[in-house]
Amino acid sequence: MSGERAEKSPRPENQTSVFVKRKRTFTLAFLAVAALFVISALVTDYNVIAGFESIPKAVVWIVKNLVPDERAWSRLPNILAKLAETALLSVAVTVCAAVCAFFFGLLGTRTTKINPWIGRGVRIVASFFRNVPDVVWAILLLFSFGQNILTGFFALFFVTFGLLTRTFIETIDEVSADCVEALQATGATYMQTVFQGIIPSSIAEIISWILYMIETNIRSSTLIGVLTATGIGYLFDLYYKRLDYGSASLVVVSIVVLVIAIELVSNQIRKVIM
């Protein structure tokens, strides 16, 4: 028995060799990242020392200039109106994209086993929409729709649709597999499997992802608004180009407050549904 235990117990030499290999791997990875940073700095003429030295000056400039003054506070109603427009646009985009992504994702999931070729095509389409940044979509759509809220809507919709489709497919595959197999074994139809198996078992994860995308789209819509001349992004761009830093800073503060408030509400909802 003692001989068997000795054979089963790991040898100290093997533990040492594994530790040495991990240490060597971490060292090589660190050196590779450091070399990549040095090469990038040389190619872009980035001065690391000058960058760190400029931080105190930047902080002083922010404290002196990015402070809302009396004129900025007088523009608060207009800022809040544009902020509400941006928030409502983000919610509308996310909800529409989530509905489309869910039914599109049902075609790509392996749980329902519709068709492997259709599933592969759905995954390719979702990856395409997900990997093209929303800013690129906005630039492309500007040529067709011009600077209006519809351009921002579609730019956010495409990226949200691609991301949610991919996440919904993975959620359904992970959460609903056992439940779907049980329903199919009892002779349930496809629609019964979807509404009585997939949706109840994955609804919590789906709502969590929808809330996350609402938060993300509020931040993204600010940048999209700069390009499409809509929403809170347009106000920030307008005030910044006028060198009205007080009003621009109030726009930034309002965006931060909105994002934090929505995140707190989302966390409370997640605690209830999870």
In terms of per-residue confidence, which ranges show pLDDT below 50 for 5 or more consecutive residues? none
Q: What is the class of the largest domain in the CATH system?
A: Mainly Alpha
- Tell me the number of helical segments per DSSP (H or I, 4 or more residues long): 12
CATH topology (level 3) name of the largest domain: MetI-like fold
Shape: globular
Proportion of residues in β-strands: under 5%
Helix content: over 70%
Gap between N and C termini: 49 Å
CATH-level-4 superfamily name of the largest domain = MetI-like
Please write out the topology.
Layout: H1 2-8, H2 12-44, H3 48-65, H4 70-74, H5 76-108, H6 116-131, H7 134-145, H8 149-175, H9 177-185, H10 190-228, H11 231-241, H12 245-273
Walkthrough of the structure:
The chain is mainly alpha-helical and 274 residues long. It folds into two domains: 3-65, no CATH class; 70-273, MetI-like fold (Orthogonal Bundle), CATH 1.10.3720.10. The chain has twelve helices and no strands.
Tags for this model:
12 helices; single chain; MetI-like fold
Structure summary:
The chain is mainly α and 274 residues long. The protein contains twelve helices and no strands.
